[in-house]
Amino acid sequence: MTEPKAAIAALTFVLLAPQGVLAQIASKVEAGSIMTQQDGEVPSSVFSVAPGIRFDLPYLALAAHGSAWLTGQQWQIADGTISGSLLSPVYNHFRAEVIGNASRAFFDRSLENDQVDAQGRLHMLFSQNSGIWVGGGVARPWRIAVVSAVDVTGGGAWTKVGDAMLSGTYTNFFFTKVAATRDSSGTTQACGTHNDPVAMSSAAGSSLSSSAATNEVNDCRRQSRFSDVEGSVNWAYGWLELTGQAGYRFGDSYDVTPDSRRWAAGTAVVWITNRVAAVMGGGRIPANPSRGLPARNYANFGMMLSTSSIPRTTIPVAPRTLAAVRDFEVRPLATGTQKITVRVGGVETVEVMGDFSDWTPLVLMRRGRDIWDITLPVSAGVHEINVRLDGGAWLAPPGLPTRRDSFNGDVGLLVVP
Amino acid sequence: MTPVISRGSRVVVCAAAMLLGALQPLALIAQDPDPLSRLDPQTRYTIELIIDSARVAGVPTRLLMLKALEGQAKHVDNRHTIAAVRSLFHTLLDVRVALGSALNESEWGAAASALQAGVPLEGLAKFRGDRNGRPLLRALVTLTDLIQRGVPVSEASSAILQLWSRGAGESDIYGLWKSVDQDIHSGQNPGTALATRLREVPVQVAPGSKIPPASQEPDNPSS
User: How confident is the model at residue A192 (pLDDT cuts 50, 70, 90)?
Assistant: First the structure.
């Protein structure tokens, strides 16, 4: 499917969302300069524009993002990803998640490929501030030397310490690829023998495969396995947000090149307004052998214009109480619309519902580090409203008069003049 | 092959990027033509019977439907949802007795909340007097909230009715609520906080009013 057709399909899906569904659309666009360098090559610098869009439902998130580079006088489409995540409610501290992605990676004409992948995860939430997950899945890349699906298994843990989020992951990759005859240290590899004329023909264009005209093929196929351990920390305070990560890759010298044993990167986001931020960062990205992408160093500096500043993370935090809410404000905008703003940090989702939505949950949009808002058509009068954080209990928002709701809970009473 | 974008497409890409960046958060609230379809058939049938009764009785039916949807959204079992809707129906009948039928939907709801919070029927009926076009909403919402926070019903009713009768407007009553709310959060006894703050409300006495001036104690002082 060509890019315009894909864009039209995505827009159509958004506009034809099922009836009765309440959702939000968030978007952001980043523009700036990216400098990259692969080992042994001259650093290159490009101007990049990276738009993204997200469609959120209470337990479903769909997202698409991409990037385009300005090289010389021409734009060229670079990476693109469409992803979806389906989360179950929390049952006895457990929560399930299914993730699907379709992506395209583009470095240059000789390094471009596509991949679809799916993963399942089981999260266990210990408390308000920590949890672990385990999961596995499969990825299928195209147009590279990998001739099997890539099995991905792993797990992770996360915890919150003050305003910081610490997380660690262990991910294991296993796949079969058409091999080079020498490993990264120059040692000659043994080549396997098998009968596979179809695979042979598909690999015929590769200089990596040895020549053979019969059904018995003597190409180099190798079972690759490596494991990544990565730790990251995210700390945010006021207008400043810092993220850093570092990792180490386990595996033999064939699967893990020396330039991908260790890596580290950092990003700083400085929020100028609630919607505009300066973004800067740099570091090293390890190679992705399952997609044939090399390791590289990078540095970037740019601006972000966003209706949703921070991407949804893969960590589904436990429900938090309203004590975490620092501010709840309802402000009239144009005739008949009210802007509801909630200031709360360290949560993944904030929802409201009330008579104005026929008691259907509405997901608030994240802006900046800890500001969430939504603009709604709300008529004059008294409206009952509840709020919840991270899928927890429905509670009366702070700062509003309340009353019992007949169901052993409270509702806030919002008076719209 | 490297995809290359033409000059025209470049304009489209730039425009799309700007549009994405400028896109305001927009809540897509699809209108559900049949919201009660979320209920299971048996519950729906019972709720519709109550709604039909309300329609015949001349009380607002939408409030009953919303109560049913609220129960469903909060995963309350069907039996409790039906009980809540039935209770609200009976409360709305009481509201009609106390305040008449010339109310808008919000006033019906606010009055029902006050009754369910414990305000006696005769207490609510006192708000039926001269309204001078003033909306009842703020007074009833504040009254309900004060009772929920622990102010005795008689004191809360007396205080709000006193303000109402003295011609207090929305801002006066809201100001009182904010002050009392702060005092309660700072640890004061709710009844004491209300009595103290009530004396500070600067409202004008309506011409010909028989209500005592603001400096006097409420009708039923408790502290």
Answer: low
pLDDT along chain B (223 residues), means of 10: 48 50 47 83 94 94 95 92 95 94 90 94 85 77 92 91 83 88 87 88 51 38 33
Rg, chain B, Cα only: 25
- Which token pair is A230? 């990565």
pLDDT in tens, A267-299: 998 877 767 888 999 999 888 887 778 888 889
Give a three-class secondary structure readout of A104-127: EEEEECCEEEEEEEEEEEEEEEEE
What pTM did the predictor assign?
A: 0.55
Element (H, E) at B164: helix B153-165
Question: Measured between alpha carbons, how far is A282 from A36 in angstroms, rounded to an integer?
Answer: 9
Q: Check: CB of residue A254 under 8 Å from CB of residue A184.
A: yes
What span, in angstroms and rounded, lies between the C-alpha atoms of A277 and A293? 30
pLDDT digits (tens, 9 = 90+) for A301-337: 998 887 654 444 444 444 455 666 778 888 888 777 8
CB nearest to B74's CB, from A53, A380, A409:
A409
A51 touches chain B (CB under 8 A): yes
Residue B181 to residue B190: CA distance in whole angstroms: 8
Distance CA B177, CA B188 (A): 14
* A406 vs B21, B23, B67: nearest CB: B67
- Give the chain A residue nearest B143 (alpha carbons): A401
Tokens 């006894």 found at: B189
Residues from chain A that touch B23, judged by Cβ atoms under 8 A, are: 25-27, 307
Q: How far apart are CA A112 and CA A230, in angstroms?
A: 26
Residue for token pair 């609220």? B70
Cα gap B31→B51, rounded to integer Å: 20
User: For residues A169 and A154, is the Cβ–Cβ distance under 8 A?
Assistant: yes
Could you tell me if A139 and A152 are in contact, meaning their C-beta atoms sit under 8 angstroms apart?
yes
Q: What is the C-alpha to C-alpha distance for residues B46 and B81, in angstroms, rounded to an integer?
A: 10
What is d(CA B68, CA A319) in angstroms, rounded to the nearest whole number? 25
- Rounded to a whole number of angstroms, the distance from the CA of A229 to the nearest CA of chain B is 34
Distance of alpha carbon A257 from alpha carbon A259, whole angstroms = 5
pLDDT at A167 over 50: yes
Residue A235 and residue A268: Cα distance in Å, rounded?
10
Pure H helices in A325-391 = none
Q: For residue range A87-105, what is the model confidence (pLDDT) as tens digits?
A: 887 777 788 899 999 998 8
Q: Could you tell me how many helices (H) and strands (E) chain A has, helices first?
A: 2, 25
Give the contacts of B51 (CB within 8 A, at least 6 positions apart).
Answer: B61, B64, B65
Residue A68 forms contact with B (CB below 8 Å): yes
How is residue B157 written in tokens? 């009713």
Residue A310 backbone phi and psi in degrees, to 5: -120, 125
Q: Tens of pLDDT along A212-235?
A: 344 444 557 778 889 999 999 988
Closest-approach residue (CA) in chain B for A396: B145
In the predicted structure, residue A415 carries a pLDDT above the cut 50? yes
B150 φ/ψ angles, rounded to the nearest 5 degrees: 110, 0
Q: CB atoms < 10 A from the CB of B213, how many? A: 9
